[in-house]
Amino acid sequence: MTDPKELAPGAPGSPPYRAKSPLSGVGTALSPTSKVTFCLSEGIVSEVGFPDAGSPCLSSLEWIVTDGAAFFSQEQRHTLHETAFFEEGIPGYRLVNTCLEGKYRITKEVLTDPVRDTFLQKTRLVPLAPLDNPLRLFLTLNPCIGGDSALHDARVSRYKGQPLLVAQKGAVTLAVLCSHPLKHTSVGYAGISDGWLDLAAHQRMTRFYERAEGGHVSLTAEVEPGETDIIVAIGLGQNEREAAAKAWASLLDGFDTAKERFVGPWRTWQQGLSPMPPMLGSALPAGALSAGAHVKTGALALRALESKAHPGALVSSGGVRPRDLAAAFDAFQALGAREDAQRILAYLMAVQEERGFWAMLLHPDGSAASGRVARDQVAQVILMVDACRRTFQLSPARMQRYWPLVWTAAAYLVGGGPEPEADRWDGAESLSLHTLCATVAALLAAADMADERGQPGVATYCRKTADYLHEHIDPWTYIRVGPGSGPDRISGYYAAAGQPGQKASGPASADVLSLVRYGLRAADDPRVIDTLKVVDANARRDADALRDADARPGTAEAQPAAAPLLLTAERALYELSAGNKNGALALLQTLEAQAPSGFFPDKTGHLPDLRTHAEYIRLCCALKAEHAPEVPRFTTERYIRKQTTAPFDLWRIERPCPRLAPDKKLRIELPSGALIHWTDDDWATKQHTLTRDTRLGVHVAELSPHPGARQVIFTFFWLTTERWENRNYTVPVGG
Hints:
about 725 residues; alpha+beta; eight-stranded antiparallel sheet; about 25% strand; elongated
């Protein structure tokens, strides 16, 4: 029978509550042999991840200080926190937590062992005032292997004669060893039999359990402070012996050895980035002499989230998002970190699906973590290849290998787009202006590459399709309210929702910035300016509403409104495109003020937000260069300068053309070859047109009705199956 003293009561325990708290640090070793990451918040380690940042194993690691009689102090809640880098841009940290009652100070250094999967924390407890009873120090840990705190097994064990705390779930085990003697140890169920409750009630450990199985577990140990620094080592592996061996080896090597191995590679990497001098501007507030102070922090945030097992995969909450990778690629390019950018591109090319797309969310190994596809990601990867091609970063041999993958990506874009169900990230089935813009730019880039590969037919088709999509951006997404109506006297705006063949609807969309970013509209285009007036007005209204909610009784948990970080960065880049450097600097200051630590948190609050850091870096690099990031030259030349239009209207079975303009051809696009049987005079005469294969999975025929024709009627004979469609289609002309 089980000894009740060994097995903790209260299974499975209460799910631990993880409140959002300010992100103050993220770190990992650059070495690929160490797959441990960590995050900091409010003076403690708020997360340890293994084998990547997107796989949390520990949700908190902190000290509790008591006097064994009447004093209880929790490090996160009852101290003032100071966090600093070892050196700027190197993600090892010094933390100083000073007791609010002035009784003690805890100083810590945290990093990961570069040669093994171990997290290391060096601690010293310093009494600050005479006490009736000596201070006692307790370590508490809350495992959350796989990001979920349930179904853990925890136990007290031993390794090489040393007390060992162990937590295990599935194929991951964490083992905790300490350089100082552990006087007491216990494991229990969170909220029922955990050490925190025992300490809060008694200021010392009174319950000692050796096992807690299948629940939300917590680990606790009393550590003898001694006269030297306390080193806590958390090893991670597949089983207890492997995890404990890593922790023990790190303790034997020593903290200082690990620190030396940790700092050197990071220092070298940061020194290889483009230097970022202080930026001055008359728009900066009094006393603010420079901006762009967090570029190195942003760079390390991106670099620290890269998977060691799958280079180029930057892992955030939930997995890998190709859209985030595209933003990080642009940031690394801006910093001159071409090798880092190339790893991202190589990863994406390696995990592309056979049909040419990437899932909206990936596991680090490249397998789909979501069944949804976001078409803008497909377009952005094509643009990444093009950016490397135009700056001679791809050897001819590599470009030869990449071209078939670009080809299949372009085929995916033209084969089904635009697709409302695959154009957005918010689940709404309507067109995304951002996706349209990225697709137009990507098809023109693919056309340039096709020309280089000696495939003019593919190039022509991609360009004409881009022209058609560009020409329909306004009909599908722009709402006219003009002229000069509304409180801001606008004529219209680009809306958040649209459908091919239907009028746009919904509020003004901040995606209007993509029109400028991809070179489809000039920054001073009146339609862009009008839309931004509405976007800004809506943002002010929403901020006021949040502030009002925060001020009302009973809303103590509401937070003061803050401008969306990503939109602030994108808006600042637009101001720079518009020639307003001081406006961009002011927005940069606003952005930095919302993240004093230099880290912009994601929506979970536990990890850095990749896209916001990437846009921040692009903004700072653009301000340094005193001009906006380069836009694709082929879009500005084609649509702003030459104002190229499409010579046709498009008909597809799944998206019929509602009406053919009198001066346009009717382009019919089919999934396989066919003979088009058609008339423009009610079958008084009949014509036959054979489709041509674009080599992109689309077969095309262009019909040219006679002047004055009122409608085009057609059917087709499928060549592969040798059958008639057995129905007529009609497209009205004019109106």
